[in-house]
Amino acid sequence: MSASLSASAVAGGFRNPVFDAQTAFRRIMDAFARPGTIADLGNFVEAPPALPPAAAALVATLADADVAVFLDAPGTGDAAAWIAFQTGAAIAAAPADAVFVVLAPASDPAGWGRFPIGTDSYPDRSATLLLPVEALEGGAPLRLSGPGIESSEVVAPRGLPDGFLASRAANATLFPRGHDLVLVAGARLLALPRTTSVKEA
């Protein structure tokens, strides 16, 4: 996938690159450290419409020239150009090359296996999946447990695809390999690391 330079690519980055990136980084890391915590990434960046604000902020914060981002939805040329200009990251042409994956809304979990899951020796070589959902509240309750959660945490994201729970259960069996998953809705995100158990509440 090529990412041509355009006006939309050069606009919408961090207005205060050092302060904004540091603030976004702390919020993202806290969301991963305490699964079930919703991080608000506010209006740090303004990306093309194909890239949800929270996904754009995460990619702008964590991606660089050493990683590749895969956009798993049609009509993402402007988003690809924005990512390439704002972060220096490559736009992956193949799923197997991805470090970050911006999934399409309602993406079928059956297809997530094409993205890297790492190896037993190098589990960090897996892809982090960013899944757009309708909202992070108002859906069927899910109970989270695992590292970073004192006993359990209940969340209720709305708009999860069919097969989501089965996919997370299968992902857990791969440990230390597997995908970390981030749910994004507007400018907010909720991290579900591979170590987090996700079950019906």
UniProtKB/TrEMBL annotation:
InterPro entries: PhnH-like_sp, Phosphonate_metab_PhnH. NCBIfam families: PhnH_redo. The gene is phnH. This is Phosphonate C-P lyase system protein PhnH. GO terms for molecular function: lyase activity. Keywords: Lyase. One of its GO terms (biological process) is organic phosphonate metabolic process. It holds the Pfam family PhnH. It comes from the Bacteria.
